[in-house]
Amino acid sequence: MHSQATPSLLETLRTGTALLHVALEKRLPFFSERLDTEWYRRLLQAYYGFYAPMEVALYDSGLITEGFDQVLRVKTPTLLHDLNALGVDERTAHALPRCTELPTFDTPDACLGALYVLEGATLGGQVLRREMAQRLGVNADNGGAFLDVYGAETGRRWKDFLDYLGSLPLDTPAKQRAVDAARSTFSCFEQWLDSQEVLL
Ligand code: HEM
Fold it and tell me: What are its GO biological-process terms (predicted)?
């Protein structure tokens, strides 16, 4: 067990991003009465415009600490699959606007912070998947695969990710770099979604 004086990396990430999570959650339209299929498609297009460059930046950085299986965890192809199912063809998808103001990943610690946000989002996805299935009839075959990107593996993958985080010996400055990047990932994502006019 860690003493209270030295919170674990996970605790640092959780407390450091909790408010940003609540703020973004409130502005996402998944539970809005006004959300229709068209808005949902625009929302996924905006997600794609963030995840695509984020995953490229992270995976091309060469800074992801060993033990993270990026082949297993890549999510952009699933977003593309959903967009196709919603009538956005490959060419149109590739021409969609992409976020250029991404967080900076210049250390392995910063990468961990960003990965925490992208992996954690799969948990909320489970709630959103059910809501979208119920309200818009969206499932894995017709535009809802991203919200259930790991399917039945969601819990297991999250646990594996937490084991990975827990196995890394980060000192206090390193944890600070991780939480800064996690916070920056939340705020860049929110600003990007805002600029794409898909938030409440
Ligand atoms: C309306 C949208 C969202 C809802 C309803 C939601 C809901 C949730 C829920 C219920 C959990 C906790 C699951 C559990 O403990 O088993 C969770 C965790 C998390 N979510 Fe979200 N979420 C939403 C959007 C997002 C987005 C857009 C991101 C980031 C891009 C995100 C990042 C995270 C992270 C990092 C965690 C892990 C927290 C931790 O346990 O350390 N969420 N979310």
Answer: heme oxidation
